[in-house]
Amino acid sequence: MKYILLVPDGAADLPCDELDGKTPLEAAKTPHLDRLAETGRVGAVQVTPPEMYPGSDAANMALLGYDPRKYYTGRGPIEAAAMDIPLNEKDVAFRCSIISTDGTNLLDYSAGHITTEEARPIIALANDKLATRAMRLFPGVSYRHILRWTDGPVDVKTSPPHENMGKPLREIYPEGEGDTKIRAFIEDSLNLLDDLPFNRERRAEGKLPANMLWLWSPGRTPVMPSFFRKRQMTGAVVSAVDVVRGLGKLTGLEIVNVPGATGYFDTNYAGKGLYALAALERHDFVWVHVESPDEAGHAGSIEEKIRGIENFDKHIVGQMVAMLKERKEPFRILCAPDHMTPVSTRGHKIGPVPYLLYDSEMPLRREVLPYDERALLETKTLFEDGYRLIDELFKAE
Fold first, then answer.
1. What is residue 29's predicted lDDT score, i.e. its pLDDT?
2. For a tag on the chain, would you pick the N or C end, based on fewer CB atoms within 10 A?
């Protein structure tokens, strides 16, 4: 038996007036998910504990079967693990995002989705001018980077930039341990970057500047039992984003690199499906994560969200199911978004999301529910502890 966890990040949503009251997931053409739902089980799951922020870090930790209330320490150390950044017991890792600001408000959480090639010189300059003996920046992908801070603060409230676009900076600055130093770093980065020739050119071209470094979600490395220890099987993860790849590293999963996987609208959906199938020749479990629906939600784009969901359905769900059936390989699939990212709010929203469980050897003929948000109201099955949902994937009926 092969076991597959599919995560269309942020695919769940709220009804949209532009779609006559439908959600993007409901409006999208998803014939392959619909077919699985006809003989599978559709239910609802509260992925992240209600008292926690529904970030992709804690939520994907839960979907993989680890209680975030027990293991979550922050986003920074998870992404640091993906980037092979060494952290000792004194080191604190912060996520460091390159953002856009007018000096008063946070304009964009990704500096207009700055490319990795454009971001590298910015991080190098900041390392030269802003870093200290205790602080060092590590370049990542696009706008996503890491600051390692020896003996740095952890008991500080920080604000995710993707949840605070348009807000005044003074309302979302860090509060708590080390907040003065963190704020000084953030403001010094604006002074360093704002008037760079690179940013003058971006403004002249009508683009947003990449003119501030925003520190958030610090923590020390979490200690998590290996996936093999928990499930007595090996596995792999297919994802373009460091927060998911980091969780794979921390739990001993193979990290699969897919050419053209970007974590954005242009990601290589078909390649992800093919590489996941190849991973199932080496392992019994594969976890496939697709970021594009979440990015579309943050962009406020209904069209891109629908397109991302449809590409996920066609190139990952459809392709993997067809080829596994061709191999005559028995398999089970669990599909669930990690959280809602409504296009109307452009941020994450706490609340249940729909999940789908399908077994190729034991098709069910129970209540037939659509695999979309309508199931949240109609299902009789609600998992209130999201980290327990994956147990259903491995449990025999």
1. 98
2. C
pTM greater than 0.85 (yes/no): yes
Number of Cβ within a 10 Å radius of residue 278? 13
Give the per-residue pLDDT at 396: 64
Residues 54 and 112 in one domain: no
Pairing outcome for strands 2-8 and 285-290: parallel
CB of 52 within 8 A of CB of 215? Answer: no
The DSSP bridge partners found for residue 141 are 144
Domain C-terminal end among 176, 202, 219? 219
Sign of CA dihedral 87, 81, 52, 66: negative
Token duo for residue 19: 């779609």
* 240-253 average pLDDT score: 96
Q: Which two tokens stand for residue 249?
A: 């590293």
| Same domain for 144 and 16 | no
Specify the pLDDT at position 172: 97
Are 375 and 254 members of one domain? yes
User: What are the C-alpha distances in Å from 283 to residues 157, 177, 210, 392?
Assistant: 40, 44, 41, 19
Q: What is the mean pLDDT of residues 227-236?
A: 97
Claim to verify: residue 193 and residue 231 sit in the same structural domain: no
User: Which amino acid type is present at position 45?
Assistant: V
Domain that holds residue 7: 2-72+224-394
* pLDDT the model gives residue 380: 83
What mean pLDDT do residues 276-305 have? 97
Q: Give the number of other CB atoms < 10 A from CB of residue 271.
A: 16
**Identity (one letter) of the amino acid at 43?**
G
On whether both 213 and 260 belong to a single domain, the answer is no
> How many domains does the structure of the chain reveal?
2
Nearest-5° Cα angle at 120, 114 to 123: 100
Cα 83 from chain centroid?
Answer: 15
Residues 171 and 304 in one domain: no
Q: Which of 144, 177, 150 is nearest to 93 (CA)?
A: 150
133 falls within a domain: yes
CA angle 199, 201, 207 (to 5 degrees): 75
Whether residues 123 and 262 share a domain: the answer is no
- The DSSP symbol for 340 reads B
Q: What is the DSSP letter of 17?
A: G
* Assigned token pair, 103: 């000096």
Report the relative pairing of strands 91-101 and 212-219 from DSSP bridges: antiparallel
* Cα–Cα dist 391/397, whole Å: 11
